[in-house]
Amino acid sequence: MDRYAISKSPCQFVENFSLFGMPIWIKRDDLLHPFVSGNKYRKLKFPLLALEEEYKKTDRLPLVITMGGIWSNHLHATAYATAKLSFPSCGLVRGHTAMQSLTLADCRAQGMLIQFADRINYRALRENPWHWQTMVDPGLIKQHPDQYWLPEGGSDPAALHGVAEIIGELIDELKFIPDAIVVACGTGATLAGLLAGLKGCSRVIGIAVLKNADYLHGEIARLLQQAGYPAYQNYQLLTNFHHGGYGKVSPELSQFCREFSEQSVVPIEQVYSGKVFFALRKLIQSGYFQSHERCVVIHTGGIQGARGNKIPLKTPE
Ligand SMILES: Cc1ncc(COP(=O)(O)O)c(C=O)c1O
Hints:
The chain has helices spanning 39-55, 73-84, 102-109, 119-127, 132-135, 138-143, 159-174, 189-198, 216-226, 251-263, 273-285, and strands spanning 11-14, 24-28, 63-68, 89-94, 113-117, 147-149, 180-185, 203-208, 235-238, 295-299. It has 317 residues and is of the alpha/beta class.
């Protein structure tokens, strides 16, 4: 994937941001690529490179099948990345055929075939990934006898290797290992990848963006194990910053995102980065960090998804 994206993102030092009252660094993975942004670039890199390697000496192409919501950053990134590799793709989308979004329009423009899954089938896909076999159009399967399933959010164990690369980049750029790394947590794969890169050093603070997220401890452990890493424990999962649940926005969060957008050139949205920066401010205000601690926030991108909400956003620099 490096051939169509910058492969490193800048780490910006923000010394005097009045919303925080403490200097922070922001790893701007949102700048990695306009379509394959943020942690999507990191998470798709190794699974898709492996697939490219596997198929390069054959005359076949795998049908890449995955799942997501109508504003899914993962579907958006996968549609673009698979199209670049000439792989056909199919997105199983939570909802019904009347639903539309700019994200889905972009996915279709890249050639991704969109099929809708109702709540029951979507839940079944989460619980049993093989369920896609009962859902994807049999004509499509016949046309593409090789299929490759990418889990929701691109959270394949191999995704961790790409996320782990963030740590080497950070150390190269900063010349020190940050004391704390703050990141959004949806499936837990990005957090697990950071742990893999840190190899037991420092600590990661995961901000769960969904409700009742304690089960993510198990997911993080599973992903680390399946990707061949030790069961690193140097992290904290904070489960009280979901603002009502996945995609939900409290008035406080909305106000915070507005202030942030007025005071900063860094674009944020309300589903992931807004919740992370909100949590960071609360943590700083409550004395969670010691004054000497150097804290890096990973901006995991996802700005395209904000086209579905009403917060005015800054255009990425
Ligand atoms: C922009 C953005 N940030 C963070 C996350 C959460 O990452 P993970 O699912 O790896 O925990 C996602 C979803 O994958 C996302 O789209």
